């Protein structure tokens, strides 16, 4: 048998096991794959801490079973994610896969979820099309179209007439650029140029020089979590703030993981996103306090995706009494609950998250920098799926 066909046979056997023999065992396993090392390590660190907090708060039992969470490091390399997912399904017989810190890592794993009928909870990656890559994918993070449309509308209504866009050149960047530009133009705005930087080893100096020369009213930016601080530093060093070019972005840029170290250049930056550590609800205040006490750093939007993702899996295991496969997937769909970010829904049709999107401004509060929410669009479905 070819290696590939052998893999397919193993995955099919795992799919049968998910519905049958597994139901006898007292322990169920969840396989979490995260970039714990490499350029996206902050995403892994945030989600890992959120998972640990969730387990400490809620216990390790669901549906009458003990739940074991296996966390694996893919270092942000898609071939590694795929291999780890295969091992978790075939050898460890996990009932669900979770994590996925970057879009290519989620896309690489989608066929394994489909072939083995294993629900796959995407806690971080945010390209709109990911949920269409497998009927077993459910998402607890967000989509870039959700975030980009709201900031485009805000800009057009707030004296921003000419914009340059700057995004990282891969899935979520494509989505951010496309949905920002179309919404901004629909509202009468003018896009002077669309710039891109590579995912790995981005140096922002050349593109920032170009932006300076184009002299727009505002620069719209999407960068993945972890790159915001370096970008902000170069934005300040090139004097773009002093040149009167406003910075607007998705909240990935003023990421709570790095925001507090960005300094005065970040003050006043307006972004749109689904989560801020400063979200003023009782549930979020408790979430942030408990998270900081346990992890010793501030939770960001990745952490909330991980914490809510655990909720989705555990509630579904309660419903299925620990069974996996199609039953577990069905029990994930349609979950409606209060999250530290506000009310969220796992849309039963799209398996994607429906949530409030906030417009926020960076302000200093009690000596610390925060994304302070000042406007909200309620219950936003992924615009990428309304085509
Ligand atoms: C993705 C990664 C990020 O760090 C982020 O902030 C948004 C999207 C992604 O690869 O999908």
Topology summary:
Layout lengths: L2 H17 L7 E8 L6 H18 L2 E2 L2 E9 L4 H13 L5 E4 L3 H14 L3 E3 L14 E3 L4 H13 L5 E7 L2 H16 L3 E8 L7 H10 L3 E5 L5 H10 L8 E5 L19 E4 L8 H14 L5 H20 L4 H8 L3 E4 L2 E5 L6 E13 L2 E13 L7
Parallel strand pairs: 1-3, 1-4, 4-5, 5-6, 7-8, 7-9, 9-10, 10-11
Antiparallel strand pairs: 2-3, 11-14, 12-13, 13-14, 14-15
Helix pairs in contact: 2-10, 3-4, 5-6, 10-11
What does this structure look like?
The chain is of the alpha/beta class. It is 40% helix and 24% strand. It contains 11 helices and 15 strands. Helix 2 (41-58) packs across helix 10 (301-320) and helix 3 (78-90) runs parallel beside helix 4. It is globular and about 65 Å long. The protein starts with a helix and ends in a 7-residue tail after the last strand. The protein binds 3,4-dihydroxybenzoic acid (DHB). 3,4-dihydroxybenzoic acid is lined by residues 43, 102-103, 125-127, 171-172, 224-225, 252.
Strand content: 15-25%
Q: How would you spell out the order of helices and strands?
A: HEHEEHEHEEHEHEHEHEEHHHEEEE
What's the N-to-C terminus distance?
42 Å
Structural class by SSE content:
alpha/beta
Stretches where pLDDT is under 50 for at least 5 consecutive residues are: none
Radius of gyration: 21 Å
Number of strands: 15
Q: List ligands, each type once.
A: 3,4-dihydroxybenzoic acid
Helicity, as a percent range: 25-40%
Instruction: Profile the largest sheet.
Output: 9 strands, mixed
């Amino acid at each position: 048998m070819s290696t590939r066909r052998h893999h397919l046979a193993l995955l099919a056997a795992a799919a049968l096991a998910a519905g049958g023999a597994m139901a006898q065992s007292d322990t169920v396993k969840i396989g979490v794959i995260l970039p714990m090392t490499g350029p996206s390590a902050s995403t892994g660190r945030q989600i890992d801490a959120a998972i640990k907090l969730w387990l400490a708060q809620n216990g390790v039992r669901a549906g009458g079973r003990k739940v074991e969470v296996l966390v694996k490091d893919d270092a942000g390399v898609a071939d590694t994610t795929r291999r780890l997912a295969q091992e978790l399904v075939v050898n460890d017989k996990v009932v669900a896969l979770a994590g996925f810190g970057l879009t290519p890592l989620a896309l690489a794993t989608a066929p394994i979820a489909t072939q083995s009928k294993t629900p796959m909870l995407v806690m971080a990656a945010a390209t709109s099309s990911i949920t269409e890559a497998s009927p077993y994918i459910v998402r607890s993070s967000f989509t870039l179209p959700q975030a980009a449309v709201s900031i485009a509308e805000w800009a057009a209504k707030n004296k921003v007439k000419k914009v340059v866009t700057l995004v990282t050149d891969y899935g979520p960047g494509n989505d951010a650029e496309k949905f920002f530009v179309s919404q901004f133009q629909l509202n009468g705005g003018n896009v002077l140029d669309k710039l891109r930087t590579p995912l790995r080893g981005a140096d922002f100096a050349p593109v920032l020089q170009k932006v300076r020369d184009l002299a727009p009213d505002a620069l719209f930016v999407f960068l993945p979590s972890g790159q915001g601080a370096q970008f902000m530093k170069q934005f300040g060093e090139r004097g773009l703030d002093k040149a009167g070019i406003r910075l607007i972005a998705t909240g990935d840029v003023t990421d709570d993981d790095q925001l507090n170290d960005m300094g005065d250049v970040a003050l006043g930056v307006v972004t749109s996103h689904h989560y801020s550590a400063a979200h003023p609800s009782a549930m979020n205040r408790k979430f942030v306090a408990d998270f900081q006490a346990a992890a010793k750093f501030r939770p960001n939007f990745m952490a909330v995706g991980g914490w809510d993702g655990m909720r989705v899996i555990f509630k579904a295991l309660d419903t299925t009494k620990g069974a996996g496969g199609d039953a577990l997937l069905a029990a994930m769909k349609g979950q409606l609950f209060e999250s530290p970010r506000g009310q969220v829904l796992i849309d039963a049709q799209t398996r994607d998250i429906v949530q409030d999107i906030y417009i926020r401004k960076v302000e200093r509060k009690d000596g610390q920098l925060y994304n302070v929410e000042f406007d909200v669009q309620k219950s936003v479905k992924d615009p990428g799926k309304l085509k």
